[in-house]
Amino acid sequence: MSYAESLLLEFDQEMANTRKVLERLPDDKLDWKPHGKSHTIGWNANHVVDMVNWIVAVITMPSLDIAPIGGQPYQVPALASRREILERFDHNVTAARKALATCDDQRINETWTLLKAGAPMMSMPRKVVIRSFVLNHMIHHRAHLCVYLRLNDIPVPGMYGPSGDE
Hints:
Number of strands: 3
CATH architecture: Up-down Bundle
Radius of gyration: 17 Å
Structural class: mainly alpha
CATH superfamily: dinb family like domain
Largest sheet: 3 strands, mixed
């Protein structure tokens, strides 16, 4: 089994768990945030959805410049409803899964670089970027969403077993 094939097992589980959280998003509270220094529910949801698509960039591109000199800086999408968020999530999951399924061990072990204005911010093997910078990072922001749901008395779905609401 290739590294990518083994990662797909975890990918499928985490995407299913993430979708359960996104399904609970309240359209009327996407601008809610628990603190002045926090991001909103909507920002976190858009960030989670967008991160899934980073897998495609990591696999198909040698690098990504988030603030290219003379170009448009990278921006998190601003989807404004649960429906739009779920549609984009499903699209990104399909694209990311396809990219992973077709990535061989040689490619997944090659170095990928994140740039800002042409300067490297980090360079790591693709498999490390996907695991840490994408999946772990996405799970971190999914956890924010779970806390935000709880603070708004919206039942939190179970992910690795039942939640306190199930």
